[in-house]
Amino acid sequence: MSKEWINNKETFEVKDVRKLKGNFLPSILKMAQKIEAGNGFCVVQSFEPIPLYSALEDLGFEFSTDKISEKEFRVYFFRTKVGIPKYPDGMDIPLKPTAIVNFNRVKPELANVVVNFWDLIWGQENPAVEMKTMLLLSLANGVGAGRMRQATRELIKAYSIGTTVAEFDDIFSMFTWNQGAGFFASEISPSSLFAAYQYIKTQEEKGVERFDIVKKLIEKFGEKNSEVSTFYKK
User: Fold this and answer.
1) In sequence order, what E strands does 21-100 have?
2) How confident is the model at residue 2 (pLDDT cuts 50, 70, 90)?
3) What's domain 9-104's superfamily in CATH?
4) Which pTM does this prediction carry?
5) What is the predicted pLDDT for the residue at 29?
6) Is the dihedral of CA 115, 120, 121, 122 positive or negative?
7) Please, are residues 223 and 233 in contact by the beta-carbon 8 Å criterion?
8) Helix pair angle (25-34, 50-58), 10° resolution
9) 214 vs 226: CA distance, rounded Å
10) How many CB atoms lie within 10 A of CB 127?
């Protein structure tokens, strides 16, 4: 990657998101999509915003990160070409781990630990276990721990990268076996997880394309859905 643009990085518009209490990703992605090729901007955050990197790479951005202190990271993004976002929210994969912002509200150092832990698990270029399997394992772990919002998010991610309805059918059958019929009836059936699963099934039966189903899943079961969002709302 040519990084000649770094010599001019101090001229970039600065977006300081350190004091934002909610999800800062949508505003960054909205700004990024308006930037023309040959221009850039800078994001200032209390922790290194690693999940943002791949999303902006898909939009045609290179980046360079400066660690100013333990509580200040400056990431310079420069657009070399205009890439088309895969999903309507500008993400490269649905429902990025926006809850990292919540750790930042406790301590920036804690957010840094968590985001680097996330990158260790989910940021591998060539993981020994394929990503689809990892997401299904995470989905199952979420159900086992009673964390339905986590499980819902993992289901949508798994579907977006190719998990089939038949595979989900087997997974949900296993939930009945492992968790018991009572748990399935009282906890899984009325959950956002089961609703998302059933939405996928009904839409595929109608012949709707996977990409269009994923777009609707993001709308119906994204951050605006209180059963799935990881942000506190009064």
Assistant:
1) 40-45, 61-69, 72-79
2) low
3) Vaccinia Virus protein VP39 (3.40.50.150)
4) 0.85
5) 85
6) positive
7) no
8) 30
9) 18
10) 12
